[in-house]
Amino acid sequence: MPSILITGAGRGIGLALAQQYCEAGWQVIACHRSRSPALSALGERGVSLHSLDVVDDAQIGELTASLAGKPLDVLFNNAGVYGPDADAFGELDAAGLLATLHVNTVAPLLLAQALLPNLLAGSRKVIATLSSRMGSIADNGSGGHYPYRASKAGLNAALKSLAIDLGPRGFTVLVLHPGWVRTDMGGPHGQLSVDESAAGLRRLVDRASQRDNGKFLDVDGHELPW
Ligand code: NDP
């Protein structure tokens, strides 16, 4: 049975991923900062639930200690924040920028580093991370959104290095845009439901091969410009 660890699984796309991988018979480790009733219901169906605020180093340490010696096939970095409402030039502050960078840029990289022994012991060696088309520098034609855009662009740069560094060890590092999805972050007018987005993301993860290592893909598998 393949295994997957998903961050931010309490709601939104992360919850839909946990539900679908559970349905598909995978061993799911669902990490959550807040535990929703829907996630608790998954716990009753055999999904392993772990408290994890991704910016809390001590909690990352507790998670890795609890998983010591256990192989992990897929790390799915889903947790993310849009950042402060005050995100226009002229109203920015260091605290808002740094907090957004911590969750979106720093945490996925540190989690991959912490879970490397587990991933090396797994058979698939996939690190999938939700970035965003808004992190594409080439695609930015409208400006603004400083904390979010900068955090996802920084994430993309870090993951490109990770793909180059871990590729020779058999890894596939995927940088994924989930589409515009109807969640708390995406709002009510998004094009995709969480289930549609999660189904597309699962297809990309499940068919991932080393040829995909270091690619920035949208939910339909099309390559995006960096
Ligand atoms: P939501 O706002 O619906 O959910 C965000 C999830 O991330 C929640 O589970 C939240 O947990 C978790 N999270 C936030 N901060 C932390 C933290 N410090 N530690 C642990 N978990 C945390 O967002 P989406 O489901 O829409 O987004 C998921 C990912 O997809 C994000 O990375 C986002 O940037 C990306 N994305 C989404 C798009 C969309 O249209 N929705 C478009 C492009 C990218 P809690 O419930 O505790 O707050």
From TrEMBL:
GO terms for molecular function: oxidoreductase activity, acting on the CH-OH group of donors, NAD or NADP as acceptor. InterPro entries: NAD(P)-bd_dom_sf, SDR_enzymes, SDR_fam. PANTHER family: SHORT CHAIN DEHYDROGENASE, SHORT-CHAIN DEHYDROGENASE/REDUCTASE SDR. Belongs to the short-chain dehydrogenases/reductases (SDR) family. This is Short-chain dehydrogenase. It comes from Acidihalobacter aeolianus. The lineage of its organism: Bacteria, Pseudomonadati, Pseudomonadota, Gammaproteobacteria, Chromatiales.
